[in-house]
Amino acid sequence: MNFINQVAFITGAAQGLGKAFTEALLKKGARVCFTDIQGEKGQKVESDFKGKYGQKNVLFLTCDVSSSQNLKNCFQRAVSTFGGVDIMVNNAGIVDEENWKNVININLVGALEGSMLAIEHMRTDKGGKGGKIINIASTAGLTGVFFTPFYSAAKFGLVGFHRSWASNPYIGQLGLQFGCLCPAFTDTAILYPKSKSQYDDDFKKFIGQYGVNKVETVVEAFLMLVESENCNQDIITVTAQDGIQYHYKENLKKSNL
Ligand SMILES: NC(=O)C1=CN([C@@H]2O[C@H](COP(=O)(O)OP(=O)(O)OC[C@H]3O[C@@H](n4cnc5c(N)ncnc54)[C@H](O)[C@@H]3O)[C@@H](O)[C@H]2O)C=CC1
Ligand SMILES: CCCCCC(=O)CC\C=C/C=C/C=C/[C@@H](O)[C@@H](O)CCCC(=O)O
């Protein structure tokens, strides 16, 4: 599938998974507005991507998802630059258990606000063209994680929001699809939080036991959601042990996640 005429908006995308999702969509012909709180880093990536994928297909905006106004302005800028947004990817996230209200504001509130901007823009009963809202949660949103309870709480909240919207019986009439990606540990900077914790050794043991996903595998799972004719209600997990696994509403109930 190619994404010619499709426009994506991605948060937290100057590095890591968001950057890789941005490049994967650009390679397939989409136009992408990618955003991040790290302005300088994002601008360097923008210049690289513009060279590879075309000046008119790429836009970087400095954006802090914990600021409602900043996120709204950036979303509107993407709409006015590209003529609309078809795929919203709420990806920005942090691990910072000491400053846990930031974790809730970025990982949960930021993703909910991003989703609401996309819903209002895309819903066909309000003149939109429909679209996909992909939330990047985590397996920590499906199972408790003792060393990052606040992170896990934020991701559980995001999965709950995804499931609630995805199960809305009127979703087809609104032209919306909700897909959710839940990777386990993946080889990006987030695995190395700046602050130390009493659980660092447990964390290392955990990682040693469960392994770490390659970014490419998570990108493959992401593309399964965005390329699907209808990804609504889909939750995809990616673990080093079991690889990519689809969980539809029914079999998720039966699984132990
Ligand atoms: N790498 C992993 O093991 C896993 C990551 N995830 C999720 O994937 C998403 C992406 O994380 P990674 O690429 O792994 O980590 P990363 O740390 O490389 O990327 C996160 C990005 O979010 C940005 N960001 C942080 N605060 C922000 C804010 N207030 N506004 C906008 N952008 C902000 C950062 O600048 C960074 O570019 C996160 O939501 C994370 O929770 C989920 C499961 C596993
Ligand atoms: C089965 C759970 C999979 C969860 C996968 C993720 O979403 C990855 C989360 C990313 C990083 C976690 C890092 C944890 C580090 C620990 O050492 C922690 O105790 C450190 C907390 C440091 C802090 O408060 O900033």
TrEMBL record:
<dbReference type="GO" id="GO:0016404">
    <property type="term" value="F:15-hydroxyprostaglandin dehydrogenase (NAD+) activity"/>
</dbReference>
<dbReference type="InterPro" id="IPR036291">
    <property type="entry name" value="NAD(P)-bd_dom_sf"/>
</dbReference>
<comment type="similarity">
    <text>Belongs to the short-chain dehydrogenases/reductases (SDR) family.</text>
</comment>
<dbReference type="InterPro" id="IPR002347">
    <property type="entry name" value="SDR_fam"/>
</dbReference>
<protein>
    <recommendedName>
        <fullName>15-hydroxyprostaglandin dehydrogenase [NAD(+)]</fullName>
        <ecNumber>1.1.1.141</ecNumber>
        <ecNumber>1.1.1.232</ecNumber>
    </recommendedName>
</protein>
<keyword id="KW-0560">Oxidoreductase</keyword>
<dbReference type="GO" id="GO:0005737">
    <property type="term" value="C:cytoplasm"/>
</dbReference>
<dbReference type="GO" id="GO:0047034">
    <property type="term" value="F:15-hydroxyicosatetraenoate dehydrogenase activity"/>
</dbReference>
<comment type="function">
    <text>Catalyzes the NAD-dependent dehydrogenation (oxidation) of a broad array of hydroxylated polyunsaturated fatty acids (mainly eicosanoids and docosanoids, including prostaglandins, lipoxins and resolvins), yielding their corresponding keto (oxo) metabolites. Decreases the levels of the pro-proliferative prostaglandins such as prostaglandin E2 (whose activity is increased in cancer because of an increase in the expression of cyclooxygenase 2) and generates oxo-fatty acid products that can profoundly influence cell function by abrogating pro-inflammatory cytokine expression.</text>
</comment>
<dbReference type="Pfam" id="PF00106">
    <property type="entry name" value="adh_short"/>
</dbReference>
<dbReference type="InterPro" id="IPR020904">
    <property type="entry name" value="Sc_DH/Rdtase_CS"/>
</dbReference>
